[in-house]
TrEMBL record:
SUPFAM superfamilies: S-adenosyl-L-methionine-dependent methyltransferases. The lineage of its organism: Bacteria, Bacillati, Actinomycetota, Actinomycetes, Pseudonocardiales. InterPro entries: SAM-dependent_MTases_sf, TylF_MeTrfase. It comes from Prauserella isguenensis. This is Macrocin O-methyltransferase.
Length: 262
């Protein structure tokens, strides 16, 4: 194992705090319990100290996705919508640094005020805004987290505000990796509606909270509306990903796939 691989392995463990094993600060049914490696690996707890609540399996998928993007020359930036303490975005920036990518940016999109109160089906029942004492993390805190790893520079761009306000006019030209960790139907729909068309062919789309019915419903509705048939792959019990344009093209009767290729 070379030095770069060792660095990335260690960074993964630091971001999830598998080093010092901090206890969960939520959800409410885990408060007061001790650190559980299985929960941390699968992203089932809200860490009290760690810089991400995405589990180590999700970080490994981010690493694999970025390696695929760089290895295959998929154009575009790396975007996460819903960043909490910024750990996944920090990992994205580290990956670009390790692999010597000179130009791509990491876009850090969040309200930085926690979860909005949403009346969309399923969102109101979950009422995540009631947990903003844990879920709300300021942009200044996220910036300081980047700085602590030596990874805050002009290739880290922040989009601060509710997605419905910031994403329609977001100055992002092309996206190679779009990672959604929005938890809500309304937010998931807003991300897909405003950013999906900017994802390059061959780019990766990740839905961190697909196990939540309102999020999976929003994804299915969007895919159905757009006739997206790219296969969905599981990451862990909650998260999924797909690659844009990976479905076998439909061929009209009597027309060969080769004849239609460019």
């Amino acid at each position: 194992m070379n030095g770069n691989a060792r660095y990335l392995d260690l960074l993964e463990r630091v971001l999830t705090n598998e080093i010092y094993r901090d206890p969960p600060a939520g959800p409410h049914y885990l408060v007061g319990r001790e650190y559980d490696q299985r929960l941390r690996e699968t992203g089932k707890d809200w860490p009290s100290v760690a810089h991400t609540m995405a589990g180590s399996r999700c970080l490994r998928q981010v690493r694999s996705a970025v390696e695929h993007i760089l290895g295959n020359g998929i154009p575009g930036d790396l975007v996460e919508a819903g960043v909490w303490r910024g750990g996944v975005c920090i990992f994205m920036r580290a990956l670009l640094e390790v692999y010597g990518d000179p130009a791509r940016r990491v876009w850090v999109a969040d309200s930085f005020h926690g979860m909005p109160e949403s009346g969309a089906a399923g969102d109101s029942e979950l009422a995540l805004h009631e947990f903003n004492d844990v879920l709300a993390v300021s942009q200044e805190t996220v910036e300081e987290n980047f700085r602590s790893y030596g990874l805050l520079d002009d290739r880290v761009a922040f989009l601060s505000g509710w997605f419905e306000d910031t994403l329609p006019a977001a100055p992002i030209d092309r996206i190679a990796l779009l990672r959604m960790d929005a938890d809500l139907r309304s937010s998931t729909t807003s991300i897909l509606t405003n950013l999906y068309d900017k994802v390059s062919l061959g780019g990766i789309i990740v839905v961190d909270d697909y196990s939540l019915p309102m999020c999976s419903d929003a994804v299915r509705e969007f895919r159905d509306q757009r006739d997206i048939t790219d296969p969905i792959h599981s990451i862990d019990d909650d998260a999924v990903w797909w690659r844009k344009g990976s479905a076998t093209p439909r061929v009209e009767s009597g027309v060969s796939a080769k004849a239609g290729a460019s």
